[in-house]
Amino acid sequence: MPMNTRALPPEHDTQSIDARGSGASHLDPEHCRVARLARDPRFDGRFFVAVVSTGIYCRPICPAPTPHERNVRYFASALEAATAGFRPCLRCRPDSAPDSPAWRGTDTTLRRALRLIDEGALSTGNMTQLADRLGIGERHLRGLFQRRFGVSPKAYALHRQCLFAKQLLHQTRLPITQIAFASGFGSVRRFNDTFRQRIGLAPRDIRRQQVEPRAPHAMLQLNLSYRPPYAWQVYRDFMSRRYLQGLEWVEENAFGRHFRWGDARGHFTAHHQPQRNAFRVELALDDLRHLAPVVANIRRVLDLDADCDVIEQHLAASQPELPLMTGLRLPGTWSPFEAMIRAVLGQQVSLIAARRLTQTLIDHLGESTADGGRYFPDAAAIAAHPLDFLRMPGRRRQTLIDVARATLEGNTSFQGVSGIGPWTRDYARLRGDSDPDVWLSGDAGLRRALVQWPQVKAEQAAPWRSYLLMQLWSLDHEAQ
Fold it and tell me: How does DSSP assign 155-181, residue by residue?
């Protein structure tokens, strides 16, 4: 139900708990104390609780007996807790906590670096290559990480790899050898040594202490957590109005699709489990070396790391007369390339027409899957075809071809591609990059909503204008 977001009482002030810099000194211990005693899931991942007497750090929702406050230290991130010498709890599993946007910071270059590392940039490449992709020097890159986290980019990457491996050890029956490669390690020996050093236990110790029996299954099954609330019905309906036959599927409590990632292929179905504040994801992937970035991208598509309390408090303060729906997320598309192609096909036409055109493109050029579905056409297939089967102006067909050629040439920002205006570029950013601060000023659905709510001031909603856009779109079912 739509509702105005109320400010939380002082003892649950998310802005106070939110770490604006690195280090536990930026957290308010009293606010953290109240949140952990309440085991409030809205604070999951926003800070971590380290217990001096046990040497373990936990999520604030940990079901273990509550430690005395004198034995507790608070950290803004799992990385900081691990760097301080604490090891992750085997019961609440900090590796499964949603990320905190505040912990990741607001520096655009740093956020992009974190995303590239999570996608495996330092598993398959080196620091020089990462710095080149970011357009900065290695020294500047190292400085960003030291100032923010107190560790090097490589140490951050190893921490993330170990936490992902721990998640796989808990939640799957994959052999340890496969988990090592799926987590980005080049050898099992390197994996065992690094895991023992950073987690405090050997991988086999995690398996021996696993208490949840798991039956063999043809696909991987992972639990991906989020901070409540999650407006699943709005997300589901948005996807349902746009889903493409053979590529995607939308069910009462699930969303899934076929996908490519590099040279890997797979499919997933995410089942919403609101009672656990999580999605149970069934995932098939033919090359487990790409598992970590694929899971990270599924999190982005579902927008699982959004902090709705912070976002909605900001929107409520900046748009006091607008009724807000709680838990709205940004429905992502699998890749920036796919988002741009779908945006071009949606130029100046209705949602129904755009969906029909995109379906035609997939039916003609999408590679068939083993189960009779389709993958979204890759850039090479679109670049090599005149697209004369699409009933649309020739200039727009050429734009599709130019987008595909730009992608093959490494121009993923699509600079200089003719036929891409502000709406197209911003729509692709909104859904392909999940940019939280996009405002589609020329969008037809937005214009209709603004007729009803002319008092909306978009500039005051920054840096969360994408979420304001979703709020207004939720009031207009014909929205693009």
Answer: HHHHHHHHHHHHHHHHH----HHHHHH
8 A C-beta contact, residue 141 and residue 67: no
Burial class (CB in 10 A: 0-12, 13-18, 19+), 307: buried
From first to last of its 480 residues, the chain has per-residue pLDDT tens of: 333 333 333 333 433 343 333 344 468 889 899 999 999 898 998 999 999 999 999 999 999 999 999 999 999 999 999 999 999 999 999 999 998 777 776 678 888 899 899 888 898 889 999 999 999 999 999 999 998 888 999 999 999 999 999 999 999 999 999 999 999 999 999 999 999 999 988 999 888 765 455 544 568 999 999 999 999 999 999 999 999 999 999 999 999 999 999 999 999 999 999 999 999 999 999 999 999 999 999 999 999 999 999 999 999 999 999 999 999 999 999 999 999 999 999 998 899 999 999 999 999 999 999 999 999 999 999 999 999 999 999 999 999 999 999 999 999 889 889 999 999 999 999 999 999 999 998 888 899 999 999 999 999 999 999 999 999 999 875 444
Q: Is the dihedral of CA 282, 46, 106, 147 positive or negative?
A: negative
Q: Which residues of 76-106 are buried (b: 16+ CB within 10 A; e: fewer)?
A: bbbbbbbbeebbbbbebbbbbbbbbbbbebe
The single-letter code of the amino acid at 121 is: A
* The pair of three-digit structure tokens given for residue 415, joined into one six-digit string: 């600079």
CA dist list (Å): 17 to 20, 47, 61, 126, 148 = 9, 8, 15, 35, 17
93 phi-psi bin (left φ>0, alpha ψ -120 to 50, beta other): left
Question: Looking at this protein, which amino acid is placed at residue 228?
Answer: P
Q: Are 267 and 301 in contact (CB under 8 A)?
A: no
- Distance, in Å, from the CA atom of 16 to the CA atom of 234, rounded to the nearest integer, reads 29
Q: Are strands 264-273 and 278-285 parallel, antiparallel or unpaired?
A: antiparallel
By the 10 Å C-beta count (0-12 exposed, 13-18 middle, 19+ buried), 272 is classed as buried
In sequence order, which residues have a C-beta less than 8 Å from that of residue 9 and are 6 or more positions away? Answer: none
Alpha carbons 386 and 372: distance in angstroms, whole number:
25
Do 167 and 220 form a contact (C-beta atoms < 8 A)?
A: no
Please, are residues 219 and 195 in contact by the beta-carbon 8 Å criterion?
no
